[in-house]
Amino acid sequence: MFTGIVQGIAAIESLESRPGLTTFIIRFPEHTVGDITIGASVAINGTCMTVTARDGDRLWFDAMQETLRLTTLGQLREGSRVNFERAARIGDEIGGHLLSGHVHTTAPVISRDEPENNVTLTFEVPVEWQKYLFPKGYIAVNGASLTIGEVMDNRFNVHLIPETLRATTFADLRVGEKVNIEVDSQTQTIVDTLARMGYDRPAR
Asked: What is the mean pLDDT of the chain?
């Protein structure tokens, strides 16, 4: 499990592609993975990945073709910057909301507005996921727990303060780029339960 509080920005040092598998070699900031072990889980842009090897501040991760298809990891290249979060431990403060690291879908950036001292990003999810979007609800974008601002059909926006921009890769995001989306599990459970009881959420 993860909390959606991004712990830093790492960089793709290199990729090794083989039939059906891509290995990512990622360099992390100094002293952030010193105690990590083989088999540990790390969220890379919100995708739960397993450490397969380590050399100092560099970690190795393998991604199957299905993972590359369902997430934005297949778009990463040498030098790409990514958000990362190590798995939560019992007793950790939950500053965001609980995440599984299982990406539900991807969404392109539709617009980027930069009013003074913040940034507003608007995303568009596939229509089948819009029923889980609620103003002021939780959502994870590239592994970061965020509060939804406005919802417009299958589009939603988030408002980012300078600290969020400093601590994540959102400062790099531009219109047309895609992000990983994990909807809030509690919201999904409530919406799906009500739907099974016949109380489908009306289309907007």
From this structure: 93
Rounded distance between C-alpha atoms, residue 157 and residue 204, angstroms:
16
Supply φ then ψ for residue 39, to 5 degrees: 95, -10
Angle at the Cα of 191 (from 190 to 196), degrees rounded to 5?
A: 95
Sort strands 151-152 and 155-160 into parallel, antiparallel or unpaired.
antiparallel
**106 within 8 A of 130, measured Cβ to Cβ:** no
What pLDDT sits at residue 203?
Answer: 55
Q: What percent of the chain has pLDDT over 70?
A: 95
What is the per-residue pLDDT for 133?
97
Domains and CATH numbers, the chain: 8-86 (2.40.30.20), 105-196 (2.40.30.20)
